[in-house]
């Protein structure tokens, strides 16, 4: 696969810019990365919720506003996710005829990566990678009309669980149905395990790229501008607001 790199890689960008970058890469995959595209990214504190979710039901909007936590809706379904600089986001994109097969392929490769580092990871359920029964990665997928699959997910390195638990507000019934008292009970950070192996954040990111990719491509200014045009769709206030009264599983 080809690791896609931005010309200003150190600049801070909105989470929805990277979702737009996924769309752009998927629709131009045969031109820029025929064997598949991969990139990792980090963002300032942000809540991103699914296409069909009721923002008011899943997010503590006032808390997020008071902490300058950005709030966006994505075009794919699924639950509500909190991201900050301690959460490495992963995008995995390639042509496919069955996106569920691509999804399984990615989860297997990601869990194998952790085992390669000496961490006992396993795939569990529909979309999670677990270590010692707790989630370190949650993922989702979509299929573009161009026949290209997109998998994107979280990789919990040093996420601020305290802020996450206040920003995301799933119903008590959902939590009880899963046998947990809070969102934070179901997740864990990888940092303590990686610190014990002498692997820091920068080293982890290099290892991830080396595991998944055998080449790299820096996008040019015109491509970045095209991604920015896609991003405008996510920034439309009516799209962010969505429909009230509808909510997917936010865990």
Topology:
Layout: E1 2-5, H1 15-27, H2 29-32, E2 37-41, E3 46-49, H3 55-58, H4 61-66, E4 70-73, E5 81-83, E6 87-95, H5 99-116, E7 121-124, E8 128-131, E9 134-143, E10 148-156, H6 161-167, H7 172-177, H8 191-195, H9 201-212, E11 215-218, H10 221-234, H11 237-241
Parallel strand pairs: 1-2, 1-11, 3-4
Antiparallel strand pairs: 2-6, 3-5, 6-10, 7-8, 8-9, 9-10
Can you give a write-up of this model?
The protein has an eight-stranded mixed beta sheet, with helices on both faces. Strands 4-3-5 form a three-stranded mixed beta sheet. Helix content is about 35%, strand content about 25%. The two termini are about 30 Å apart. The chain is globular, with a radius of gyration of 17 Å. A hairpin with a 2-residue loop joins strand 8 and strand 9 (about 135-145). With about 250 residues, it is of the alpha/beta class. Helix 1 (about 15-25) packs across helix 10.
Please compute the radius of gyration using only Cα atoms: 17 Å
Strand order of the largest sheet: 7-8-9-10-6-2-1-11
Shape: globular
Structural class: alpha/beta
Order of helices and strands: EHHEEHHEEEHEEEEHHHHEHH
Could you write a compact summary of the structure shown?
This protein has helices spanning 15-27, 29-32, 55-58, 61-66, 99-116, 161-167, 172-177, 191-195, 201-212, 221-234, 237-241, and strands at 2-5, 37-41, 46-49, 70-73, 81-83, 87-95, 121-124, 128-131, 134-143, 148-156, 215-218. By secondary structure, it is an alpha/beta fold.
Comma- or semicolon-separated keywords:
disordered C terminus, 11 strands, alpha/beta, three-stranded mixed sheet, eight-stranded mixed sheet, 251 residues
